[in-house]
Automatic annotation (TrEMBL):
InterPro entries recorded: Glutamate_decarboxylase (IPR010107), PyrdxlP-dep_de-COase (IPR002129), PyrdxlP-dep_Trfase (IPR015424), PyrdxlP-dep_Trfase_major (IPR015421)
Assigned protein family: Belongs to the group II decarboxylase family.
Cofactor(s) listed: pyridoxal 5'-phosphate
GO biological process, one term: L-glutamate catabolic process
EC numbers: 4.1.1.15
UniProt protein name: Glutamate decarboxylase
A Pfam family: Pyridoxal_deC
Residues bearing the modification N6-(pyridoxal phosphate)lysine: K210
Species whose genome carries this gene: Eutrema salsugineum
Gene3D superfamilies in UniProt: 3.90.1150.160, Type I PLP-dependent aspartate aminotransferase-like (Major domain) (3.40.640.10)
Gene Ontology CC terms, in alphabetical order: cytosol
Amino acid sequence: MEPECNKLMMESINKNYVEMDEYPVTTELQNRCVNMIARLFHAPLGHGEAAVGVGTVGSSEAIMLAGLAFKRRWQNKRKAHGLPYDNPNIVTGANIQVCWEKFAKYFEVEIKKVKLREGYYVMDPEKAVKMVDENTIFVAAILGSTLTGEFEDVKLLNDLLVEKNNQTGWETPIHVDAASGGFIAPFLYPELEWDFRLPLVKSINVSGHKYGLVYAGIGWVVWRSKSDLPNELIFHINYLGADQPTFTLNFSKGSSQVIAQYYQLIRLGFEGYRNVMDNCHQNMMILREGLEKTRHFSIISKENGIPLIAFSLKDSSCYKEFEVAKMLRRFGWIVPAYTMPADAEHITVLRVVSREDFSRTLAERLVVDLNKVLHELDTLSPRIYAKM
Ligand SMILES: Cc1ncc(COP(=O)(O)O)c(C=O)c1O
């Protein structure tokens, strides 16, 4: 962030966010951020109507809160109809980020995962909808898979689920985990329908500390409307002064990240964010071209997702992605290598994320260093690397 924003963060480092009566402006800034983000995601709000949402520590906390709201709504509905409510599940792709496993474990919800397959590394909406049953509290779609950056087809999921809901009467909703994509799609792909434009999308999370361009420790969750957040989950405290409604997992937290997010949103504006994201995308494309030229890799990521590049060595290679990752460390590059989840475990991927501070020069240098690594691996005996 800019030095002015660093200074602002340092000046507010002593403020506890929860002291809302003492620091009312910070609460106001949070509310403004929620309103801007909800409108960016096309929440159906009237003129001057306040959006429903909250700042969190990151997408993980945001996902816990969204998941809890769904669970409670589903339970309330089941209770009202005299139906069992002790076996809730969610349907997702096997490509979910670990925070979803945490949500399921901590809040006792079963995860039904749609398996991946070679060449298809996101949730298949048709398979997902088939897995939905009366105990499904929501389907979680990911806008920007952590593993490949690919956007899941939320529109198709919505349409198939509308059909199923019409047949069954279950009203199964959708949550979109837009941890990275929430600050990419509105700027680079404004026509893509993935957000509250789709009627079954009831809540969305986004990380402020990814493409929201703030330092670590900020995320957001926004709901479509007030009725999607059960009132009984909101706590009212008054011992710090006035009545303060809160819906977060933690009580205290720093204010700096909220203030920094507000700074970034108004300093950069829509145009500024679009320029940054466009730049990230262009640098990713430079890298993509450089990787293709090596003829050693199959590119797995799509051009129109998160600006990242995920790639595997071609089958003919006599060394592994883990060796490439290990050798790149000698040049100062930390490029993770990992295996895909079920049923694509046999595929190993290397991944480079193009962030705001990843310049064209750095992209070109990475290609040069990668070529050096490939040359060494190609010319030296494969047996040496087998021991690594
Ligand atoms: C798709 C997705 N969801 C959730 C998370 C968790 O986000 P956070 O680190 O903001 O808690 C991540 C982090 O990488 C992610 O990629």
